Amino acid sequence: MTEPADPEPSVGWGLLLWRGATRRCPRCGAGRLYKGWFRMVDRCGGCGMRFEREPGFFVGAYLINFAIVIVLLFVLCMVFVAMKAVDHEASVLPVIVVGLPMALLAPVVFYPYSRTIWSAFDIGMTPLSDEERTAAAAALASGDVGTIAQS
Ligand SMILES: [Zn+2]
Fold this sequence. Notes:
Blueprint: H1 13-21, E1 34-35, E2 39-40, H2 59-86, H3 93-125, H4 130-142
Antiparallel strand pairs: 1-2
Bound molecules: zinc ion.
């Protein structure tokens, strides 16, 4: 007796997050998900998966982006603490000179990564439903993938 084929081969968390961290589709690993730096395609060109799985889906991406910036600023603060431990007269100015641009630019730099990382988390926690897989296959068959809806 044979088991029915798994319709969606499970991908491990390591591969999911690696794909997300490299701006690739977490489901199939395809790239070219962005037109420019900010505009993400609606459906993956490799597997047809719709990235915005429900309204408000990408709120989680903002959390990822925020967490990345907080970690960077925390590391910078720890560097300052270490500097103060070595030299009590160390100035806070270099930390501000580095930290302020970092706080402003890091969210922009990590924006596309945060979206694909969030997609990876979401796929890992909630695999695609039968309806989503069917819609992805239909979109792929009709060529309605890799584009950005005009709004
Ligand atoms: Zn894909």
